[in-house]
Amino acid sequence: MRIALINENSQASKNAQIEAALKKVVTPMGHQVDNYGMYGQAGEPSLTYVQNGILAAILLNSGAADYVVTGCGTGEGAMLALNSFPGVLCGHVVDPSDGFMFAQINDGNAVSMPFAKGYGWGAELNLEYTFEKLFGFGSGNGYPADRVVPEQRNKKILDAVRAHTLKDLITCLKGIDQELVRGAVAGERFAQLFFANAKDEAIVAYVKELLA
Prior knowledge:
Helix 4 runs parallel beside helix 5. A 5-stranded parallel beta sheet has the order 2-1-3-5-4, with helices on both faces. The protein contains 10 helices and 5 strands. The chain is of the alpha/beta class. The radius of gyration is 16 Å and the shape is globular. It has helices at residues 15-26, 49-62, 76-82, 96-106, 123-135, 148-165, 169-174, 178-184, 190-197, 201-211; strands at residues 2-5, 32-35, 67-72, 90-92, 110-114.
């Protein structure tokens, strides 16, 4: 699985710590981590939590990433932004039990975490333990055991509802201020990572036109 890490501007200084914790946990599992920033470097293009949603949607819908780990100060804004787009099912994950239950019950493809609220002593341990529970036990298996069947049924119902209530991604993106979208893909390593891994030709063509 290819996991994309995205940080917004207010928490960019924590990018290296989050990346280290994520790689420490998931690399031995055989997963790849692509760090899309922000990296906390002076002068780099700024990402708001709204642009986190745009970038995550482009990565997931194009196949450039299979999963997105992102967040903001509380994790709430980024979660709302990501869930505004088709093809993205993002949970708000604070601790290891959140990570485990979101993976098993909701079976999404993105998480938003609080990187300011409650982020103090032992923060790196919470990250590591949460990533272990999020990625280390499969997904969609249900929890607890007596709730597996209705939970898996409800997930299929939710997917069907979202398929009818959300437009296709390119239509969504073209309806947004194009400067806002362009800013979401302006990161230093975006082109290098995205074009090497994206699989959806229509989204790739749109992004190329956007960056031209």
